[in-house]
Structure formats: structure tokens, C-alpha cells
Specification:
By secondary structure, the chain is mainly beta. Helix content is 10%, strand content 54%. It has a 21-stranded mixed β-sheet that branches. Strand 4 (77-84) and strand 5 (87-94) form a beta hairpin.
Length: 298
């Protein structure tokens, strides 16, 4: 190949490569708008987050500072932050009506002091909170709530979302219309859980505390271990009960011989019994769903 042809060929290859890169850049979505704000706070700040659609991640650090990072891709959505003393608020503001989910979407990454109070509202998407210690309220329509190693008075209100709570401690009040509620390794002193048509799972120690689990239709499952100790009351109107715990009918004994309830009772509408000393109080109730009391898999 002559030098001239070689150079021409090389030039054509370079032009083709540049054209490919240009077309690739055109195909990429516009870069998201990013807002980053830092707020100095005193101990136990109150952090409020209001979002229409997207993901909210909250985690903790040891600094007395709140870091808010918000991203959104649409010009019709913007992230607004403000501080009033020890109160921090981050929210989305929508410009326009009848917006699509993509136009409303905003994602938050928020870092707070370990001891902080949270108030979070998210219409749809997901809320994730890890290792934050303080009272918290969550209000969602179609967003899931995932909590891990949190402590405080926890209030969760959902319409269609589900709650996944791992190693949650303190007190919990949770309700959902159609979502599931699952508690793994809970360290709660008190739990009141209700779901109209969702399933409820309690998989953790039953050695102390008071736990009330109720739904209209769905499965309520409680998993126990040989080391647990609880009083149990289970009832259903049209559903069924499966009990695999070796319960005693005389809860705390009055000197009389204790009569054991059959180990498996699947056709009973209700029963009351005690497992070991009966330290924890467990109440399970459903209208037409299923109640299961099963051994925990070790």
C-alpha cells in the first residue's frame, strides 16, 4: 500500500471511530442534576425527607453533621433543602402536573449522626435505613421500607408497600393495606403489626416483650426456638391454625398438673397456651387467613 493510501485509510478509520463515539454520547441519557448540602447540628437532630418517587438511603456516621445528596434527571423536579436549628428538611419540588414517574424521580443519599430522629415520606420507590438510633416515622403509598439495626420508637404506615425489618430494637407499630411485613431477628420490647391482605412473619427471639400480629387475610407465621418462653393466644374466624409448639394449657400453674395442648392443632379456631415459663406475650389474629407457629431453622 502506498503512503498516500495508507494515510487515507487511517483517516477514514479515525473518522469512523469519532463518529461512533459521538453517536454513543448522543444515546446516553442526560447527566442527572446533583445537589450536595452539609449541615452542622447538635445531638439528636430531626431529619425530615419528603419525596414523590425514588430511592431514599439513610445511614449514620459519628460526625455531628447531616450530609444530603440528592440527584434527579428531570427539569420538572428539583431537590430543596433547608435548616431550622436542629431540624433538617430535604424534599422534592415538582414543576408541572400529570408528570410521569421518570419526571418525578429523585434519589437521596443522606448521612446523619448515629442518634437522630427521622420522618420520611415517599410515595413510591424504596426507603432504606441502616444503623440509626432514634424515633422514626415512615409514611408511604407504594414504597417498600427496609430497616436494619435501628433502635427507637418505630412507626411505619404503608398502603401498598412492604416492610423488611432486620435486627430492629425498641418499639414497633406497623400497618399495611396489601404489603407484607417481615421481622428478622427482632430485639423489640413491643410490636403491634397489622396488614389487611399481606403476610406477616416474625422470626426471632420470644423471651420478653409483647407482640400483637393481626391481618384479615394472608399468612401469619411465628418461628420459635427451644430457648424461647411465651404465652400464646391465636384465633381465626374462617381460617386455620397450625401449631407445632409444645404448649401447656395452664399458663402459669396454680399447683395443679399442667395439661399439654396437642403439638399440632390445624383445625382449631382458637387456643391459648404457654411455652416454658411464658415470659413474652404473643397474640395472633386473622379473619380468614392462616396462622402458623413453627420451629425456627437453626
Amino acid at each position: 500500500m502506498t503512503p498516500i493510501r495508507h494515510l487515507a485509510s487511517k483517516g477514514i478509520c479515525c473518522a469512523a471511530a469519532l463518529a461512533s463515539v459521538f453517536l454513543l454520547l448522543l444515546a446516553l441519557p442526560a447527566s442527572a442534576h446533583r445537589v450536595e448540602k452539609r449541615f452542622t447540628v447538635d445531638s439528636r437532630p430531626v431529619v425530615i425527607v419528603r419525596n414523590s418517587h425514588g430511592r431514599i438511603d439513610v445511614k449514620s456516621w459519628k460526625r455531628m453533621e447531616v450530609l444530603v445528596v440528592g440527584t434527579h434527571g428531570s427539569e420538572k423536579c428539583e431537590v430543596v433543602t433547608e435548616q431550622a436549628g436542629n431540624r433538617i428538611e430535604a424534599r422534592t419540588r415538582l414543576n408541572g402536573q400529570n408528570l410521569s414517574p421518570a419526571e418525578m424521580e429523585a434519589n437521596f443519599e443522606i448521612t446523619v449522626p448515629e442518634e437522630s430522629e427521622l420522618q420520611v415520606h415517599n410515595d413510591s420507590g424504596v426507603i432504606i435505613v441502616e444503623r440509626v438510633y432514634g424515633d422514626m416515622t415512615f409514611d408511604t403509598i407504594a414504597a417498600d421500607v427496609r430497616l436494619q439495626e435501628v433502635y427507637g420508637f418505630l412507626v411505619v404506615k404503608m398502603t401498598g408497600g412492604s416492610l423488611f425489618c432486620t435486627k430492629c430494637a425498641g418499639r414497633l407499630e406497623a400497618s399495611s393495606i396489601s404489603g407484607d411485613i417481615q421481622l428478622f431477628q427482632p430485639q423489640l420490647d413491643f410490636a403491634r403489626v397489622q396488614s389487611t391482605s399481606g403476610n406477616i412473619l416474625f422470626d426471632g427471639e420470644l423471651r420478653r416483650g409483647t407482640y400483637s400480629l393481626k391481618n384479615y387475610n394472608g399468612i401469619i407465621e411465628v418461628r420459635f426456638s427451644p430457648d424461647d418462653s411465651f404465652d400464646l393466644k391465636a384465633s381465626t374466624v374462617l381460617g386455620s391454625i397450625e401449631n407445632q409448639a409444645q404448649l401447656q394449657s395452664d399458663p402459669h400453674g396454680s399447683g395443679s398438673t399442667r395439661r399439654q395442648i396437642p403439638r399440632a392443632s390445624t383445625a382449631s379456631n382458637s387456643f391459648i397456651g404457654t411455652f416454658k415459663e411464658g415470659h413474652a406475650r404473643v397474640e395472633l389474629s386473622t379473619y380468614s387467613g392462616k396462622i402458623r407457629i413453627r420451629p425456627r431453622v437453626q
